[in-house]
């Protein structure tokens, strides 16, 4: 149910082993789909309040302990090191476990004694178990670091797949017998135990005699250089964590919405994340590689190859246009089909809650995520080290503004306020990345490519109005026949939209659409 992927792992897979990175991304999509289907089933078995406590409160506790303890560690340990440095790195890993335990104890006391307590049995037990699971998984870090440094890239994929699927099965099976927190508690324990055990089993199968020294530590000795670097990464991780899970912290510490509303928000957010993952992520990762390999980082445009610059400019424009059109269609049809989608996915209770309104607002959020992903993928692939540091400094006011905006808007609009805050956060990031792009290319020609033409806007508007009228007339009947007719009208109008969009495009964009994966790199197998 909880899909975890460390940033450092993703960077190694993306830049060094593109084929394995694609396998990892396909696994992430598969696990998201499994989680998506399991959630749709669990919604019918447990209450929204239980889902809110599990997916917001307990998952936030677990993620905070795990990420602050593990992410800085991996960024240090997964860099290139000499064999003589392995004992120091292993010492660093073992030292992090007491830190994680102390952090877990403090946060568990905070979660159980100071924060608002839900009226659910086993809540305190759930907090303690989720915290222990986060600490327990650190014992898998030595084999994890060893396997990745020895280029056994598929091993983490295997571990993650087995542990996640096992956890999902436990959650679903036990939810038939108990609608409390217990199924999720046992599921979390299952994941963590399998995660640690499988890693050590794979290590023992893969290790060689000459690598035995990796785990030979005579005494705990952490070098000042590694310690200082870990602390620096820890500061960066705290900032990133606030940006990533800011709305969860606001809901947890300010109690601006009920636990039941948190459950609906979590369910709808996971539904929207499937669209973002499947619709945008693979394309963005592929074109990050494309821009990084076509252009040299840090060099001004006049020192880049003329043909490469022209190709990247045209490609970026087409890529932004593709995501803009995709986001426009999702936004327009989301208005008319949000409630029906939730009715099919989670049943009447979800459809009659705040879910449809939340999903309608998530549709424009998906649209801005698409534009932001494309603009930032070019931004990060080409900017210099100084520009990277400047961007990191901008993250601090971003984080503060995002949290303040989340609190204010959630008090005014409930859970919809969190979506509005995310849209505002994305809009600010889009502004900075597009300004950089315009300065890089010396004009806004590539940016104007993202704007749909008049015929496209007209057909989307007419078909969107038709779908909205169908919602008012047919969906309101609350009958299977009415729902079926509403779906048929939407499907036919969507086909008309896609045909019109295709016919109104130029040859450059049509050629671009036929190949959304520009990078084909031969890699060594594991």
- Number of beta strands: 0
Which geometry do the CA atoms define?
A: globular
The biggest sheet amounts to: none
Low-confidence spans: pLDDT under 50, at least 5 residues?
Answer: 1-18, 518-526
Strand content: under 5%
Structural class: mainly alpha
Radius of gyration: 24 Å
Q: What integer is the average pLDDT?
A: 80
Topology:
Blueprint: H1 7-16, H2 18-42, H3 48-77, H4 86-114, H5 123-136, H6 141-149, H7 154-175, H8 182-206, H9 224-244, H10 246-254, H11 259-294, H12 306-346, H13 348-351, H14 355-382, H15 385-413, H16 416-441, H17 445-448, H18 454-473, H19 480-503, H20 507-513
Helix pairs in contact: 1-2, 2-7, 2-11, 3-4, 3-5, 3-9, 3-11, 4-5, 5-8, 6-8, 7-8, 9-15, 10-15, 11-12, 11-14, 12-14, 12-18, 12-19, 12-20, 14-16, 15-16, 18-19
Summarize the structure in words.
The structure is a single chain. This protein is 79% helix and 0% strand. It is an all-alpha fold. The longest helix is centred in the middle third of the chain and has 41 residues, at 306-346. The model is unreliable at 1-18 and 518-526 (pLDDT under 50).
